[in-house]
């Protein structure tokens, strides 16, 4: 299973904002450009992801001078599985997961059942893990970033 780029970027934005608030000890809006620069990713693509994060209620966005992004919730309440499920639109790894009639092997396809179990195992592994949990370690990961003010 490969996650979409927008899912990757969504998790990166949330980690960046949570790390920034945690390390700075303050809540100041962060500009999208700063996040794009830190991760060396496309600002234009990141803006679309941020808009979706705002619609989902995980970030707030302020326009204009002094504007930027803030987490809309505590990092400990933002579930990694929820974010991935939202951005991946969890419809199964094959079309037949949601629509069994599209497959000539149904009813009774063992592959369909197996893939459903695999997807459940993926999300169950992530269940209970929050953005705050991912900030726990002090070596590597988001701690490798140099975060500018």
Please give a structural write-up.
A hairpin with a 5-residue loop joins strand 1 (59-62) and strand 2. Strands 1-2 form a two-stranded antiparallel sheet. It has helices spanning 5-24, 32-39, 43-56, 80-88, 95-98, 110-126, 131-134, and strands spanning 59-62, 68-71. Helix 1 (5-24) packs across helix 3 (43-56). The chain has 149 residues and is mostly helical. It has 7 helices and 2 strands; from the N terminus they run αααββαααα. The chain has 2 domains: 1-78 and 130-149, Winged helix-like DNA-binding domain superfamily/Winged helix DNA-binding domain (Arc Repressor Mutant, subunit A, Orthogonal Bundle), CATH 1.10.10; 90-129, no CATH class.
The CATH homologous superfamily of the largest domain: Winged helix-like DNA-binding domain superfamily/Winged helix DNA-binding domain
CATH class of the largest domain: Mainly Alpha
In one word, what is the shape? elongated
Distance between the termini: 36 Å
Percent helix range: 40-55%
- Radius of gyration using CA atoms only: 18 Å
Secondary-structure content class: mainly alpha
Tally of strands: 2
Work out the helix count: 7
Strand order of the largest sheet: 1-2
The overall pLDDT average reads: 82
Q: Which architecture name of the largest domain does CATH use?
A: Orthogonal Bundle
Main β sheet profile: 2 strands, antiparallel
Task: Encode the helix/strand succession as letters.
Answer: HHHEEHHHH
Remind me, CATH topology of the largest domain? Arc Repressor Mutant, subunit A
Number of domains: 2
Residue runs with pLDDT of under 50 for 5 or more positions: none
Strand content: 5-15%
